[in-house]
Amino acid sequence: MYVYLGQDKVICTREMIGIFDLDNTTVSKITRDMLRKAEQSGDAVTIMGDLPKSYVICSEKRGRQKIYISPVTPSTLVKRIRRKKNGSYQE
């Protein structure tokens, strides 16, 4: 199953590790450092659009992780996944 993150970016839900609220989690210095290092190493992808509201951590080959910074709220992403699982996806 796939979920739309915004700006033509779609990811496989099997690769998802977690969906996080950007405002709530970046209060922590550890999280800010993790996001900064991911951006510097090229492991973060910013999806343009409105202000970023969430980030999704995905597993990649060879144990690497990719972080997608999305303008879509975490609650909307979760709703999209649930709708698809129930077979009633409409947007």
Question: What does this 3D model show about the protein?
Answer:
There is one protein chain. This protein is an alpha+beta fold. It has one domain (2-84). The chain has three helices and six strands, in the order E-E-E-H-H-E-E-E-H. It has helices spanning 22-25, 29-41, 74-85; strands spanning 2-6, 9-12, 16-21, 44-46, 54-59, 65-70. The chain has a four-stranded mixed beta sheet with strand order 3-5-6-4. The chain has a two-stranded antiparallel ribbon with strand order 1-2.
Write a concise synopsis of the structure shown.
This protein is an alpha+beta fold and 91 residues long. 32% of the residues lie in helices and 33% in strands. β1 (2-6) and β2 form a beta hairpin.
Give the integer mean of the pLDDT values. Answer: 90
Distance between the termini: 16 Å
Please describe the biggest sheet, giving its number of strands, its sense, and whether it closes into a barrel. 4 strands, mixed
Low-pLDDT runs? none
Structural class: alpha+beta
- What is the CA-based Rg, rounded? 13 Å
Biggest sheet, spatial arrangement of strands: 3-5-6-4
Indicate the topology.
Blueprint: E1 2-6, E2 9-12, E3 16-21, H1 22-25, H2 29-41, E4 44-46, E5 54-59, E6 65-70, H3 74-85
Parallel strand pairs: 4-6
Antiparallel strand pairs: 1-2, 3-5, 5-6
